[in-house]
Amino acid sequence: GALTAEAFGSFLGGIGPILVSIGLVFFATSTILGWSYYGEKCFQYLVPNRKAVLFYRVIFVGFIYVGATASLDVVWVLADVLNGLMAIPNLIGLLGLSGIVVMETRRFKKKIDEEREELRK
Description:
Layout lengths: L1 H11 L2 H32 L3 H20 L2 H49 L1
């Protein structure tokens, strides 16, 4: 942020850092709202209980507070760990769907081969 504000300031004068700050506020707000909605809908799918969704919201707001008040190093480490943990359910899903992916890929390749054969005629 500081380097960007300085760069904008060198070209736009005093208004440059203000524009960067306003843009950052809009970006951060839209990111928080977007991920909140996305996460809540995913959580609702997994746990269709209204009280559990309220629990999710409280935890989400708690993490917003932690992200805003903790040191930058702690925030980055926490983000890295949580992003890494997201790989676990994704890998389980990939393993579970691998047979379907192989079957659909073979079906798709067969269809492409049939269409190429039709074009050659």
